[in-house]
Design a protein that fits this description.
The protein is of the alpha/beta class. It is built from 9 helices and 7 strands, in the order βαβαββααααβαβαβα. Helix 4 crosses helix 5. The longest helix is centred in the middle third of the chain and has 27 residues. The structure holds zinc ion (2 copies).
């Protein structure tokens, strides 16, 4: 691989979480987009890695799969996302945490179904689970069940204050990881953590001061190049990454048809990629 020409998209979802395409199809699209490296970063799960690994490499020799995931956390009462790479998901502490996050998603979805029943909307847990299939269950699946039952005209209408939007009548909050703990767990499992899209949206804006705090406890990088971050935000984040000695990464956050196919639309430079790999801790 000529590293000077390398193209790496370090933020991609499959149907193992809320993307629309199975992992194998995501790898096919990554190869077609001419990528040298693609990171599969499904929410809170590594369930897509085996299928992706059987395709990237064996079928597409020029494509390397970087195993990863995207973790949801909460800092000072606000949610944020973290990308983790190259960790060993079987390490007991990390694996217990992932189980806890997934169990909570099920408990939470069931609690929302119960609240909906109290509001006269009769969707069953079985219906929601069937819609989710192999994917990690979430609000989009409840929204589809609500539309199927005729309670609302389209899934989008579920995301209002009347129903399951944040703070809505049938909303139930979720367990969220403390980012400091997440960084520690990933490091202890031999991986590195990058703060995802710190300035992408109103709900997930992470301040300079918060980023400085996370850098002090072992954060390895900042996702600078993301479709939802403006040129001005990128410039600010790039300067911050430089000041704090964090790797400036990029990724498309492709979710298949859900986001419009955009795999490879944002990338990480060859130098930044090598820098990220050099920060992988050596485990005793
Ligand atoms: Zn995210
Ligand atoms: Zn994402």
């Amino acid at each position: 691989m000529r590293t000077d020409l390398m193209r790496a998209d370090l933020h991609v979802h499959s149907s193992a979480s809320d993307g629309t395409d199975p992992p194998a199809e995501v790898m096919r699209r990554a190869a077609q987009a001419g990528l040298d490296v693609v990171a599969l970063t499904d929410h809170d799960t590594v369930a897509g890695h085996a299928e992706a690994g059987a395709v990237a490499g064996p079928l597409y020799p020029s494509l390397a799969l970087l195993p990863g995931m995207e973790l949801s956390g909460r800092l000072d009462g606000r949610s944020l996302h973290m990308l983790a790479y190259l960790f060993d998901a079987d390490r007991p502490e990390l694996s217990a945490e992932l189980t806890r996050i997934r169990d909570d998603r099920v408990l939470r979805a069931r609690a929302m179904v119960d609240k909906l029943a109290g509001l006269g909307v009769h969707v069953s847990w079985e219906q929601v689970a069937a819609i989710a299939g192999q994917a990690v269950v979430g609000r989009p699946h409840i929204a589809r069940a609500m539309a199927d039952s005729g309670a609302i005209a389209s899934p989008r209408e579920a995301f209002t204050h009347d129903w399951i939007a944040d703070g809505g009548r049938a909303y139930v909050g979720r367990y969220a990881l403390d980012p400091v703990r997440a960084i520690g767990l990933v490091r202890a499992a031999g991986g590195v953590t990058v703060l995802a899209h710190p300035r992408a949206g109103r709900d997930t804006r992470v301040t300079d001061e918060q980023i400085t705090r996370l850098a002090a406890v072992g954060l390895a990088g900042l996702e600078v190049f993301h479709p939802d971050q403006s040129g001005a935000e990128r410039a600010r984040l790039l300067a911050l990454a430089h000041d704090l000695d964090l790797v400036a990464t990029g990724g498309s956050d492709d979710h298949g048809s859900l986001t419009g196919y955009r795999l490879g639309g944002e990338t990480t430079s060859a130098g930044a990629y090598q820098d990220l790999l050099s920060r992988v801790p050596r485990l005793a």
